[in-house]
Amino acid sequence: MAKSCKGLAMELVKCLSESDCVKVENRPYRECAKEQSPKISSECVGLRETYFNCKRGQVDMRARIRGNKGY
């Protein structure tokens, strides 16, 4: 994983680990990350979108030359 997205990934995992989806339902992080807002907080949804955009920026050749945006 690239260093530019690693911090976002750690924040997303921390946020998901505190959600009811992981705590109460004992579901994997990957399943909970795909859930919509009622199961996870809006903060986690925002982190998820930011993380996915960061990963997408690594694949886009134009963004790779310019570097990822500072989110």
Automatic annotation (TrEMBL):
One BP annotation, GO: mitochondrial respiratory chain complex IV assembly
Keywords annotated in UniProt: Disulfide bond
GO cellular component: mitochondrion
InterPro entries: Cyt_c_oxidase_assmbl_Pet191
Keyword Disulfide bond: yes
Record-linked Pfam families: Pet191_N (PF10203)
Protein family membership: Belongs to the PET191 family.
Protein name: Cytochrome c oxidase assembly factor 5
Organism whose genome encodes this protein: Olea europaea subsp. europaea
Highest classification ranks of the organism: Eukaryota, Viridiplantae, Streptophyta, Embryophyta, Tracheophyta
